[in-house]
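Worked example

This section walks through a single chain of length 538. The input is the sequence exactly as stored; nothing has been trimmed or padded.
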Amino acid sequence: MSLHRHLGKGREIARTAGDHASDMFAPLTVIGRGLRHHTGWAKDRWQATPKERRGPTLFLSAAMLVGIYLLPHGLLFALIALMASAAWAGRAPKAPPAPPAPDVADVKLAALYSALTPYLCGPEDANPLYHFEGSYRSAFGSWEFDGEGRLSRLELTYPAYFTDTEPAARARIEQVVQGKAGRAREYRFDWDEESNKLRISAMSPLPTDIVAQRFVAAPGEIVLGFTDEDGTARTIPVGQGSAVTQQPPVIWRTGPRSGEPHLLALGVAGYGTSSLVRSIALQALPYADLVVIDGAGTGEHACLVNRPGVHTVETSLHGALAALEWAAQETDRRLAALNTARHTGSAPPEDVTRPLWLLLDHPTELSELAHAEGRPDPQDLLELPLRHGRAARVTVVIADDVEARDRLTPTVRTTTRARVLLGPAGPEEGHLALGAPLDIVPAAHAPIGRGYARIGNGVPVRLQVPATVDPLDDEAPAALRDAVIALLPHRDTRTEAAADAPPRPEQPPLVRPAEPAPAVRPVDLGKGEPMIRSRPIS
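Given that input, the structure is written out below as tokens.
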């Protein structure tokens, strides 16, 4: 018999003996497991017992053991009971340890890698970076998760043949990453075209509890809202709740030396373009005159009616055309007065140097109405203020829906170099509205007033507009309405309580004899010295 057969037969005999031994000693194994369970239970109860009760407990246990010893056949019965309880406690095998929780990176990054593979895998690539049986560790350089297990930072490498210079190709990758990382947050995508790397970072939410207030800014500076700390090199004190904090603002500088004298704000319906117009109006009122045109006719700016410095608030097509005609003539008059002052070397008049603001909310609706009635387009009357407004101290602010961008005239689109986009718009809409590709992917659900701003040739930054509600809106919170009312020039019985009536006298006043009426002077209808200030539109 060969050695191999001897060894095989020996292993079989050993396995059979082991099986018989395990069957023979199985009751002892169960009892031993139960005794270990009883010992652990007794140890836990002893440790849980307070120190002042351990002595009495030990005494009672000893007394019970002595009583069992003194009973006839007590030790035998106690031993049988202990073995039975040990067999019952040890009947079930020890539960296997729970498997460790899977790593968050292995689960989420593997899913993201699989989702990116169809877009970054080349069929003719001999050594593909992304393939269906590959690992994410070969393409992802570094990553970071927050405390809730959400992706907060990621750096990945993509193939050199990927068309990273095309906005459509970038948008596909950004959409896939946001879908796998979470659509509830905004992400910044930094494309490094030289090294074929993409850096993704989740952005923290902007504060939404900043209400309308007097901001620390020079005349001609408008605080459009607030952004991230790396979006600007300036901070201003802001009342936020019950405390004063330093927040980085988005400043729009206007005036004759500004490179972006006019503003175009586009937004998704319901995301605060009218609130932005109200915020700008409240900041410009202390040093400028206003002409407000509400093209939607919803009364969003009725709180500015009859306020000092507000020439008119128009909601009809007839009133808008009259106001814009006057604005065009006023711009021409200011240019002539400034030109004369420069030639003569004298100071320009006060009514020429005081800024004039034209605020138009949804003017495309008036344009459609004018086209239907065969009347002039109100946007055509803005050509002179838009082209020569910087020299004439005339600033134009236009707010409209992002879907109405194609209905804006070319003059409006080319002369408004300060841009604002509010609401979760897509990549193409963001590029058309801001004039530059947006490297931030909006969240699926954004708060009111959240958007992006681009001043001139700068980089688009995130923007959160201060909460500037309509004080005539009864559904708005009272604290927000009071903040807007406090910034209006004077009291108005529509938004503030009427003044208290004077107390009634206890006794009627004495009637004195009437004084002789003064002599009536003839009225001079001739023109005297011309007015310095232009007559406002009624």
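What to look for: The longest strand covers residues 394-401.
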